[in-house]
Amino acid sequence: MTRQPGPEAPRSTRPTGPLSLTAVLALLALLSTLSALFVLSAPGARAADGDPAVSLSKKEAGKGGEITVSGSGWRPGALLMLLICGQSTPERGVIGGTNSCANADGRAVTTDKKGAFSKKLPVTEPPKPCPCVVHVATVTGEQALADAVFTVAGHPAADLPRQGGDGKLAVLATTRLEGDSSLLTWFGAPPARRLVLTVGNLGSDPVEDPVFEIGTAHGVYAPQWEERQWRGTVAPGGKARIELPVELSAGAHGDYQVSLRYGDKVLAEQPWGVGRPWGVTLFWVLLCLVVPAAVFRIGMAVVDKVRPRPAGAHRLRRPTATPAVIARTKTKTNANTATATNATTAVLPWFTQDSAPSENRPRPTTKGQA
After folding, report:
1. What is the mean pLDDT of residues 167-191?
2. Mind spelling out the 3-state secondary structure of the chain?
3. What is the per-residue pLDDT across 4-36, written as a single tens digit (0 to 9) for each?
């Protein structure tokens, strides 16, 4: 059996060895170019991960100067607070909370639609020594923060306090809210209480001047956190009674939830029922009654003033005399009357007491008449 030759296989058109090496080199060059462009266009590694980032126009400046703080990757339309803080690093954060920051010279800024911002910040000395940072944190809504290293020229520097990683606080007793509402709260003043709790140190290192965060939530809204620092030291294995002030906004009423957080852990939650400020309601009710009545009275007085009068109805008003004038007038009248009487007596001398005519005197009788 004879085997017939089949169709020839198509020849390969792939490039030879040197040409393949050129294509690989071109591909590698293209990838490196794209990587460099991505690194240059990205504001930072933190922004690439989706976290907020902060950059400074200067890394060092003296008191009285000014720097420009820029940021990206923040929530659009978020309200941010910019502060210069001492005794802080981006790794450990702001030690001591905002008590380590120059709060009086801070600045607020709102991010744009893309979550970016740019704001000038005056350079001032923080209350704590350097190392310092420019601390940027959200004021409302979901909490986010970022720190950038900054040096205040001429400001003292000191080592950071030893990090007590083994100090752990835990709540040992039930938390409670103490305090009563005043009369001003009934008229809309901010309700205030004291959050009282007993904490214990379960670690091996003491906890000095811990900074807590108190959050108040109303309804389905997220809690608004505020820092509260407690002055004191909790020794290892010891316990301490802590009182922290809690205050709501003016006119607040309804059911609130007060939360206490230390670090990233929520230690306690306490409900708080705030009564309605009925004094404000009473004020508005009285205002709605008094104002229309006053307007009605004023309107009737105006109508009575401008309406036409019938003929002959106008009367001249006599001026009201004071009691002294009335007394002097009576004295003059009595004097005038006495003078007129004396004058009449002097002008008519023929009238005497016996010769004055009188109808009641009996007529004289003559002799021989009946």
Report:
1. 85
2. CCCCCCCCCCCCCCCCHHHHHHHHHHHHHHHHHHHHHHHHHCCCHHHHCCCCEEEECCCEEECCCEEEEEEECCCCCCEEEEEEECCEECCCEECCHHHHECHHHCEEEECCCCCCEEEEEECCCCCCCECEEEEEEECCCCCCEEEEEEEEECCCECCCCCCCCCCCEEECCCCEEECCCCHHHHCCCCCEEEEEEEEEECCCCCEECCEEEEEEEECCCCCEEEEEECCCEECCCCEEEEEEEEECCCCCCEEEEEEEEECCEEEEEEEEEECCCHHHHHHHHHHHHHHHHHHHHHHHHHHHHHCCCCCCCCCCCCCCCCHHHHHHHHHHHHHHHHHHHHHHHHHCCCCCCCCCCCCCCCCCCCCCCC
3. 444 444 444 444 444 454 554 555 555 444 444
